[in-house]
Amino acid sequence: MLLVCRFRVSDPETFTERVKRALELLTAQPGCDKGTLARSTDEDDRWVLTVEFESVVAYRRAMSPFPVREHVIPLLSEALTDEPAMYEPTLTSTGGEVEEHTSLLAEDAFTVRLGEAAGPAKPR
Questions:
Q1: Residue-range definition of the domain harbouring residue 33
Q2: What are the ABM domain coordinates in residue numbering (predicted)?
Q3: pTM score, two decimals?
Q4: Are residues 113 and 83 in the same domain?
């Protein structure tokens, strides 16, 4: 799973210190593979935080410890909300080889309304 949070930042020094602490906490959790903070080269107040998790379960568990809830959740709540934040990988590549991943979304995802789906019958 990939967490992508975009931010508009007015105080880069304070922001990067907060993100540094958040990344220390998150990447210390089992199943959290890596995190990256990047600054836009086009707009100086735009930043993006990406964090990779082994699975949805790893993401949820990583967000559970009290120090994470105390430091990370408030930071993430400041992210811009005009786009989704969680993504599941479909293709990954290392060393020139591409790996295809099976989606965990239900076959009828995005076609039913809240309360209508009983759960995935089979993966896509």
A1: 2-87
A2: 13-61
A3: 0.78
A4: no
